[in-house]
């Protein structure tokens, strides 16, 4: 549950800023004027929320450390299967393989080209994994 909360904070603040940028652009020049709409205030709120809930890189680092720390008694495979309960075995296998690969790579620690590449992949993995979870949750309530 802790990891899902951290993933949700990460995705919500990131996507919130993207959606608001799009909304502001729909109104063209008026989107940037506070007298016309409240989008500027909401955009500032999203930026503040992102900092309040911890910056993206810290959330991603915490998730990585948590999963790595418990991997001895709560396997990455069990974690993926639990979060994506009801997903196809193919999808669970794909995420499990990605997670296991990333846990073996230098995502955190000393900065190098390999660690930067792994961190970028970790960010992408977390986003796609949480979106897969969201899809499962939506199917559950339909």
Topology:
Blueprint: H1 2-26, H2 39-52, H3 56-70, H4 76-83, H5 89-104, H6 113-141
Descriptive report:
The protein is mainly alpha-helical and 142 residues long. It has one domain. Helices cover 75% and strands 0% of the residues. It is built from 6 helices and no strands. The chain has helices spanning 2-26, 39-52, 56-70, 76-83, 89-104, 113-141. The mean pLDDT is 83.
List keywords for this structure.
globular, 6 helices
Structural category: mainly alpha
The proportion of residues in beta strands is: under 5%
Rg measurement, Å: 18 Å
Low-confidence stretches: none
How many individual domains? 1
In terms of quaternary structure, the protein is single chain
Specify the number of helices.
6
How would you summarize what this structure contains?
By secondary structure, the chain is an all-alpha fold.
């Amino acid at each position: 549950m802790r990891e899902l909360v951290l993933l949700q904070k990460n995705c919500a603040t990131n996507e919130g800023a993207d959606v608001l940028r799009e909304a502001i652009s729909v109104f063209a020049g008026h989107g940037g004027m506070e007298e016309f709409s409240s989008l500027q205030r909401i955009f500032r709120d999203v930026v503040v929320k992102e900092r309040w809930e911890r910056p993206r890189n810290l959330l991603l680092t915490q998730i990585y450390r948590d999963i790595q720390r418990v991997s001895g008694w709560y396997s990455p495979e069990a974690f993926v299967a639990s979060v994506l309960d009801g997903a196809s075995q193919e999808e669970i296998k794909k995420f499990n393989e990605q997670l296991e690969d990333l846990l073996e790579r230098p995502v955190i620690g000393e900065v190098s080209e390999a660690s930067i590449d792994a961190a970028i992949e970790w960010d992408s993995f977390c986003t796609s994994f949480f979106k897969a979870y969201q899809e499962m949750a939506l199917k559950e309530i339909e």
